[in-house]
Amino acid sequence: MTGTNPTPLELLKIDHLLTDDERDIAGAVREFVDQRVRPYVTDWYERGEVDLSLIKEAGSLGLLGMHLQGYGCAGTNAVSYGLACLELEAGDSGVRSMVSVQGSLAMFAIWKFGSEEQKQRWLPRMAEGETIGCFGLTEPDFGSNPAAMRTRARRDGTGEDADWVLDGTKMWITNGSVADVAVVWAQTDEVDHHPDGSVKQGSGIRGFLVPTDTPGFSAPKIRNKLSLRASITSELVLEGVRLPADAVLPEVRGLRGPLSCLNEARFGIVFGALGAARDCLQSAIDYAASREVFDRPLGGFQLTQAKLADMALELQKGFLLALHLGRLKDDHALDPRQVSLGKLNNVREALQIARTCRTILGANGITGEYPVLRHANNLESVLTYEGTSEVHQLIIGQALTGQNAFS
């Protein structure tokens, strides 16, 4: 502990549970955030922009696709990646989203399901931040039910070398309007026929690598957001986008492809949301120490201390849960349902911590001078994307009961 006033994650002496390398990575990312994010993020949020040079700087630090092996990626363990997400989101959820979409969605899809030629073409430059990627799954009418997507890919011609032509729309796509390549998931006429004669829903879904300068592709920026404002969010529009036969990701078909990518990104959120919560809680502790109410520090009142104690408890529990899941992932023993447990708990508790911290700051809590309401607004999006709380509840419920309640 540091002096007599430990930080929120020091009460349980958690630090010794990390390796030296993990602590060094977390410290390096924290320094990066302190220098390149904190001094500017309020202005970015106010203007609805973000400094895109961050992506190259993140690449130079080895943060892009950092948990992937080869092709210029750092090859760190899962816990190190999680800690990096925590430190990035302590700066802003939008910055963490920019990094995790690049690495855990776009790069992971290519790394896991791409051909060797596709990996060599895209991954090294994406790891450096020279090439930006995005991930197109969600549609305007189909978020939690991606199997019903309307984006279509059809073959134009005969034989294995026939072109693909894509038509459709994707929505809420991070990095979309600044990306150089989009991983787009689309329905095809291909289906998987099972021995019992059934056809699995969504089995014709394939992933495509779409260079964003391809004719017929556009990515208008979504404006007037009240959350994740320091992040680029776009719509993807595909109108007769013609791609060569080798644009398809060859190693997967069906929903297993995009859902496994989402699971990678959700793992980062399990850690990342705690960064936003930690930043809010530390801001509230500092404020309570200096703000005087009725001739005494706000932190000296029982109600304030009760709030701080409860929030510190949930933050530490959330970190232990995240660390446990990270160790399971590094042991190749992590179940997607366990990631749902982590995402549901940690984002929900982080949002409640942000809201409670706002009450401690009072009216000051709604200003950009303090980060708490910015974090709370961001966490409203994090609560929804890559699986809503309700979806994760149903995943856990199905695991406990054996009953599918999705439909």
Please explain how this structure is put together.
With 407 residues, the chain is α+β, with helices and mostly antiparallel strands. The chain folds into 3 domains: 14-128, Orthogonal Bundle (Butyryl-Coa Dehydrogenase, subunit A, domain 1); 133-253, Butyryl-CoA Dehydrogenase, subunit A, domain 2 (Beta Barrel); 257-401, Butyryl-CoA Dehydrogenase, subunit A, domain 3 (Up-down Bundle). It has helices spanning 20-36, 41-47, 53-60, 78-91, 93-113, 116-128, 256-290, 302-330, 336-361, 372-384, 389-401; strands at residues 133-136, 152-156, 163-174, 181-187, 205-211, 217-218, 233-243, 292-293, 296-297. The strands form 3 sheets. It has a 4-stranded antiparallel sheet with strand order 2-3-7-6, covered by helices on one side. The chain has a 3-stranded mixed sheet with strand order 1-4-5. A hairpin with a 2-residue loop joins strand 8 (292-293) and strand 9 (296-297). The longest helix is centred in the last third of the chain and has 35 residues, at 256-290. The N and C termini lie far apart (50 Å).
By CATH, the topology of the largest domain is: Butyryl-CoA Dehydrogenase, subunit A, domain 3
**What share of residues are in beta strands?**
5-15%
Number of strands: 9
The level of helicity is 40-55%
Beginning-to-end CA distance, first to last residue: 50 Å
Instruction: Label the CATH architecture of the largest domain.
Output: Up-down Bundle
Task: Identify the strand order in the major beta sheet.
Answer: 2-3-7-6
How many structural domains in the coordinates?
Answer: 3
Please trace the helix and strand order, writing H or E for each element.
HHHHHHEEEEEEEHEEHHHH
Oligomer, anyone? single chain
Q: Count of helices?
A: 11
Mean pLDDT: 94
Rg, nearest Å = 22 Å
Mind telling me the CATH class of the largest domain?
A: Mainly Alpha
The CATH homologous superfamily of the largest domain is termed Butyryl-CoA Dehydrogenase, subunit A, domain 3
User: Main β-sheet: number of strands, strand sense, barrel status?
Assistant: 4 strands, antiparallel
Q: What general form does the structure show?
A: globular
Structural class determined from secondary elements: alpha+beta
Uncertain spans:
none
